[in-house]
Design goal:
With about 120 residues, this protein is α+β, with helices and mostly antiparallel strands. The chain contains 2 helices and 4 strands; from the N terminus they run E-H-E-E-E-H. The radius of gyration is 19 Å and the shape is elongated.
Length: about 120
């Protein structure tokens, strides 16, 4: 990742364990797609109701050249499950974006005539 990842906590105290988990997941994503420019992770404790437990929301924003990818509707009572689900969704989005970009590159290369006919 070209820029340092941003990790934001809303409604909860920052947690070194959560930060470590997020950074490890971002590193795995960056190894898969080294073109990642920036990443922002927001972990929020949503307002609670008396009959329900605490619910966490996770939002991921990733920037690739020419693309802004977002995962924003991941909620769960376990913050680690919410993080896992959000990163699984983001991984699929990144894979799809990379696959489409490679396909376009192959299509353009196939349309170009050979430079050296000999």
């Amino acid at each position: 990742m070209k820029q340092l990842p941003q990790i934001q906590f809303l409604g909860i105290d920052p947690s070194p364990a959560l930060e470590t988990d997020v950074r490890e997941r971002l590193e795995r994503l960056d190894r898969f797609c080294p073109d990642l420019i920036a990443g922002r992770t927001t972990i929020e404790l949503l307002h609670t109701h008396q009959q329900q437990g605490r619910t966490f929301a996770v939002r991921l924003d990733m920037t690739l050249p020419g693309h802004e990818l977002t995962v924003s509707r991941v909620h769960h009572e376990d913050v680690y499950v919410a993080l896992r689900n959000a990163f699984d969704d983001m991984t699929r989005q990144v894979q799809d974006t990379v696959r489409i970009a490679r396909q376009r590159h192959q299509d353009v290369a196939a349309l170009q005539p050979d430079a050296d006919p000999a």
